[in-house]
Amino acid sequence: MKVGEVERLGFFIDFFFDLAEGHRMPEKLEVYDALIAYSVGSERSRARMRAQYETLGQVMVHELAIAFPDLDGGACEELSFIFVSMMHAHWSFVASLGYARGHGRLARKAMDRLIESYRRDSQFQPVIDRPWAHER
User: N or C: which terminal CB in the chain sees fewer CB atoms within 10 Å?
Assistant: First the structure.
């Protein structure tokens, strides 16, 4: 898909909630839950999974900054962490617990509302210093 043909942030969020027409998420996503469970006892696996999600988060930070240049950088970081957390939880619910994929519309609408709430917050104060910080 050519960048100029889509609204990038919208497409990005739609894709990860399985709403991008013609660009479906894979059917078998249980492997992510298995890898998360395995990473509890494996520092190597935990570091690799964390790096994957952090990369996705950084893409989200950049896409938010491009779409909303007036949005505070700290707000972009917080939103990216919330997005990745919500996206992972959504797919865990769908893949491992059997909820319908259509719940992606609910998560997508929640992301729109979150982004708008951050945009309206003219006195943004970060909740934590580094949303992507980890302890081990």
Answer: C
